[in-house]
Amino acid sequence: MANLEDSFLADLEDLSDNDNENLDEDSGDGEHMEEDVNGDLADIEALNYDDLDSVSKLQKTQRYTDIMKKVEDALETGSNMSNQGMVLEDDPEYQLIVDCNTLSVDIENEIVIIHNFIRDKYRLKFPELESLVHHPIDYARVVKKIGNEVDLTLVDLEGLLPSAVIMVVSVTASTTSGKPLPQDILQKTIEACDRALTLDESKKKVLDFVESRMGYIAPNLSAIVGSAVAAKLMGTAGGLTSLAKMPACNVQILGTKKKTLAGFSTATSQFRVGYIEQTEVFQTTPPALKMRACRLVAAKSTLAARVDSIRGDPSGKQGRAYREEIRKKIEKWQEPPPAKQPKPLPVPDSEPKKKRGGRRLRKMKERYAITDMRKLANRMQFGVPEESSLGDGLGEGYGMLGQAGNGKLRVSVGQSKLAAKVAKKFKGKQYSSGGATSGLTSSLAFTPVQGIDLIDPQADANRLGSGTQSTYFSETGTFSKIKRT
Amino acid sequence: MSYLLTTLTKKEDVDSIIRDTIDKLLVLRFGRSSDSVCLLLDDILSKSEQDVSKFASIALVDVDSEEIQVYVKYFDITLIPSTVFFFNAQHMKMDSGSADHTKWVGAFHRKQDFIDVVEEIFRGAMKGKLIVNCPLPPERIPKFQLLYKGV
Questions:
Q1: Interface pTM (ipTM) of the complex?
Q2: Which residue in B has a C-alpha nearest to residue A343's C-alpha?
Q3: Is the pTM of this model over 0.90?
């Protein structure tokens, strides 16, 4: 890892000439993200840093200035498409674009670091501002505008923030617990804001450049989503290959704005839509189909990005095919459903009736079931003439009712099957202490003081002389006292 | 309205349609297209033809044609319109509380009435009955008086 060693060495050099930096520091082109990581670590380690430059180094690097110069030149000269024949990797423009992508990501990180710096400094003055204004660039602008001002009515925040947010900020400022900053800290904060804003500017330039070259870099992707959105996606993902490696669900989310302040309605906010929202396809779909369209576009654009990352189709034909597919699918979704044909009636009794079952039906059927009495009356014993109501074989026969063997003329109302089941269940549930339950013990006992008092049946078996139960007739009780008389 | 339903004028046509309608109820309306009651009935028949198409087929027989007079005599058709029902070449009768069970005389009050009658006859036919009871309440059954010859 020669790069790592080099960068460490370079950083050591940096630390020694920290205060005497000027724009022409040569720290080599090999520095990458490690630089920012080191900056970050330094940030965390040296919590009471005062110098902005120890935190944000990007703007001073050679790499940064080189790329910015090239970008500006390229933007001025316009696009030159004379490089069809060349293999992509050798093309200097492509290399520049790849560098631009990495640079834009670096700038992003740098902006975050600077934002932290500004926030920490400004906390003394206006701590609530960081939770009201999330976006780092907006925060920097607002801080620059407010400066050291105590009374926010003198500060005009129009155009920097939406008016609702301005209102909230003004209100919070009037009740803030912060105190005005000392002059040197204020100076440093303003410097940091400027730095952040210039970085933002350069990022915009870089992205514009990438966008103008997008048709050459990723023709398929730009055929689907348009070059502006393609540039943004590539920029956020950190390069075409990283974009290609992402799953489609992540591509959908790229560029989502963080949710707005609590208290504002979230009914109108769209969930999980990022840069895809700005594509022409998305804007022209009806609102009901927007989510489906978003997913579709994200999926196809991921495929196109993958094609582009290996330069599988330099002409962009595949991208156009995908675009057409997307358009067709969205149109199909919007088709009205087929008209309802009047159906002829079904043949009567061709569909068997659905028989229902269940407890309710069984109970209802029980009312008409044959009783035991009737069953007995229906049967006859062999060789034994049955009795009949009018005697001598006239009238209704009694069958086995009242026969000698049974002796039952009156058959009691038998328990229905259901009732038997229920009784069995209930018996199991009843509290029973082992097997010897006398008829006088009960699990419910009433005391005049407490009302109903549920007693643990196990404890009952042990207690004999409890005030709530009579042990006189208890089966489990023993003799309490036997006196010799 | 009768242009929507098949109109039969020849005897062979009637024969063939009775023979060839298998496992479906055949509804033959005897009447003329100029009669107003007939037109009402025809209207209902044509509207419900598609609905009952799965278990019934409908045809109109022009009672003024000479070849059909045989059938007019056979079924004793005196009042116009009269509807006769067949199932698998079997003549189906229906007891609607009127004097004549062999045919339905007059129009129906509603389309649903006609469909109910057809369904009921079909069910009975599938079970093997030759005569079924009418499901309609008496208010909706057109009343008529049988004319006897010479009375």
A1: 0.79
A2: B51
A3: no
